Amino acid sequence: MTGGAYSSTVCAPKNGDELIAGSTVLGGMHAEKSQHQHCDWCKGWTHTVFQSDAGF
């Protein structure tokens, strides 16, 4: 969802991170194989969850 000079991409296992405060909401494009999660307060994109069999 961001493609600027200061964005980065990280592939991590599904249990590789933890939300420590607040909650996320589904936003952006609502596709079957990807879910774009956004901050519930500011609606900024936080991460994307992909449906895959590889565990990522």
Offer a quick outline of the entry.
With about 55 residues, this protein is mainly beta. The protein contains no helices and three strands. It starts with about 25 loop residues before the first strand and ends in a 6-residue tail after the last strand.
Distance between the termini: 18 Å
The major β-sheet equals:
3 strands, antiparallel
Number of strands: 3
Which value, in Å, is the CA radius of gyration?
Answer: 12 Å
Strand order of the largest sheet: 1-2-3
Shape call? globular
Low-confidence stretches: none
**With helices defined by DSSP (H or I, 4 residues minimum), what is the helix count?**
0
Q: Could you tell me the mean pLDDT?
A: 78
Q: Give the strand content.
A: 25-35%
Indicate the structural class. Answer: mainly beta
Give helix % range.
under 10%
**Helix and strand string, N-terminal first?**
EEE
Your description of this structure?
With 56 residues, the chain is mostly beta strands. It has a domain of 35 residues. The protein has no helices and three strands. Strands 1-2-3 form a three-stranded antiparallel sheet, with no helix packed on it. A hairpin with a 5-residue loop joins strand 2 and strand 3. The chain is globular and about 30 Å long. It starts with 23 loop residues before the first strand and ends in a 6-residue tail after the last strand. The relative contact order is 0.27. The mean pLDDT is 78.
